[in-house]
Amino acid sequence: MKNYLWLVISLFSLLLYPVTASGHASVISSNPSPNEVMNTLPEKISIQFSENIQPAFHSLEVFSQDGDKIQIQDSTISEQSEKILEAKWKGTIDEGIYNIKWRVVSSDGHPIEGTIPFQFGDSAGLADQENSEMNAGFPNSINVFLQSLQYISFAALTGILFFQLSLMKDSRLFEASRRARLYLWLSYAGLAFSIFFSLPLKVTIDAGVGWTDAFNVSYIKEVLNATNFGAIWIVEILILLFLFLVIYFMLENSLNKSLPFLSFIIIASLMVCKASIGHTAAVPNQVLAVLMDFLHLLSMALWLGGLMALMVILPGLADRQTEDKKTFYWSIIQRFSRWAFLFVIILILSGIYSSLQHVPTIHSLLKTTYGQLLLAKVGLMLVMIVLGAFHFFRGKKKEKNLGYSVGIEFGVGIVVLLVAALLTNVQTAMSSPGPIEKTLMTAENNEVTLMVTPNEVGDNRIQVNISNDEGMPYTEIEQLTIIMEPLDTGGGEIKLQLQGENTGTFTSKSILTMSGKWKIQVHGLTESLDSIDADFTILVGNS
C-alpha cells in the first residue's frame, strides 16, 4: 500500500498548485507618453492599462528632475473605462524634466508600479529614458506558507469526507475513530487560519506596507470595500462559520448521512471562492477560467486528501476489524485507485487549459522567467515520475523498506512546490512573445510571410516576403503598403511603405507604441494593377 501511494504522490506533486490564468496588467498608452516633449500640458494625466484596475491603493505622483513633488489632484479611475487611471493638475508647472510615478492593483490582484518621464518646454534636453514598469515580485515566505496551508487543509477536509462517503461508505467513521475526529478539526483549523490571515497578507501586498500596518483599520476597510478580494473574503468567512456548525452537528449525529455530504458541498463552495480570486479575474472568459481552476483544485484536493486519509486513518480502522483485516484494507485501496485515475485526468485537462493561455511561443518558453520556471517544473516532474515508478514496481513486491530514495523524492516535491508558488506571482510569458513570423495564403495562392523583430514596444524591423503559386519570390510588385493598428485601444493606425528591390522581400522600421494585440494589413500592388492582400493579428510584448 505505502509503495503504491508514492507513485500517486509523485504525480500529484507536479499539479499541486493551479496554474495561473493571466499575466499582470501593463501600460499600453499614457498622456504624457514616455519621453514626450510638450509645450502645452494636457488637462489631466492619464494612463491606460491592458486590463481593468481595482479602485484601491492606486496613486499618481509627479516629481521634478530635482526630486521635488509637484502638486496634483488625487488619482481616480476614469468614468469612461476601468482600465484608465487619471489625475488633474492643480496648476501649471515650470519648464523642465519630470517623472510620473504610478501604482495600481490589477484586476488579478497583483500590484504593479512604474515611472513615465516627460519634458515640459524647451529649456532642457530630455535624453530617452526607460519607461520603467515593475510587477509584483516573488512571493514572500508568509505568502507561500498561507497558500500552502490553505491547499493542504482543503485536501485534508475533502479527503476525509471523500474517504467516508465513497471509500468506506460508513457514516460511523468519526464515531469509530478518535483520530479521524482530531484530524477533521485540525484540518478545519488550518483552513480557517489560512483564510483569516489572508486579509492582513493582502493588505501588506496591495498597500505596500509591512506587517506592523497589516491590521490598520483604514487599510483593511479599503481592501474589503474596494477590491475583488475583499468581497470574496467576507463570503469565505461566513461560509467558514457555517461549516463549523455543520461539522459540529455531523460529529454529534454520526448516523445522519446528509451532514457529511453537506460539509463536502460547503468546502467545494470555498474552493469556488478561491478560484475566483487572482488571475482568473483578468481573462476574457472568466466563468470558464474559474470553473477550470475549481476543477483543478477539487481534483487535487480529492487525490491528495484521499491519500492522506489512507495513510492516517485507514491503518487504525483496519486494525479494529474483527474479520479479515487484509481484505478490508485492500478493498479500500482498490476503490481509491479507480477514483484516482479520474482525478489525474481532470488535473491534466485543466492544467493544459490553463498552461496554453500563458506561453504563446517557443521563444517565450525559453527566454522568459515564467517559461524557464515552467521548464524547471517539468524537469522536476520527470524526476518524480521516475522515482514514483521505481517505488511503484518495488511496491508490487511488497517490500517494506523503500530506502533513501523516498527522502530524495520528498525533497524534489518540496522544490516543485516552491517553483509552483513562484509561477503564481511571476509575469506570464504572454508579456514577451518574442519575434513573430506568420504566413498566410491568399485567394490567388500567393504566400505572404510577415516577420516582426523583436516584436516589443519600441523600435522594430518589419519584413514581408511574398511568393507566387509556384513558391518563387514575387518580383512584379510595384508597391507594398502595410497598415498597423492596435486592437486593445483606440490608438491611431501606422501606415508604412515598404521598400524592396524586385526580390519579393520588403523591409521597413517602425515603432510599436504599445503592447497587446495588433492588426497588420498587407496590401501589395502589382505591375498589372492586381492586388495582393493579407491580414495578420499579432501579439506585441512589453519586454
UniProtKB/TrEMBL annotation:
Key words of the record: Cell membrane, Copper, Membrane, Metal-binding, Signal, Transmembrane, Transmembrane helix
Any one Gene Ontology cellular component term annotated for this protein: plasma membrane
A single BP term in Gene Ontology: response to copper ion
Signal peptide as annotated in the record: 1-21
Lipid bilayer topology: Multi-pass membrane protein
Membrane-crossing residue ranges in chain numbering: 149-168, 180-201, 231-251, 258-277, 297-318, 339-356, 368-390, 402-423
CopC domain boundaries: 24-119
GO molecular function, one term: copper ion binding
Domain Copper resistance protein D: start-end pairs: 332-423
Compartmental location: Cell membrane
Any matching Pfam family: CopD
SUPFAM superfamilies, alphabetized: E set domains (SSF81296)
Protein name: Copper resistance protein CopC
